[in-house]
Amino acid sequence: MGYFKYKERSFYLQQTADSIEQEWEAVEIGVGRYKNIADENERLEEFVAEVHRLKSEQKKRQQNLEQPAEERQVNE
What we know:
There is one protein chain. By secondary structure, the chain is mainly alpha-helical. Helices cover 82% and strands 0% of the residues. The protein starts with a helix and ends with a helix.
């Protein structure tokens, strides 16, 4: 079970890193949520907010993995 959790944790960390990289690329080329934001500082503020959200989601997933199975079923 511990090995599975390790792989799952690693998968979620990589997924979050990939999402952050994808957001940065969107900032650089001005697509997606950044398409209509002309000011660079405003784009960066939006990027920081999105990265913060992604990291918060990652922390929640990690905390969920660290809980015993019985507690996870109650919390879901």
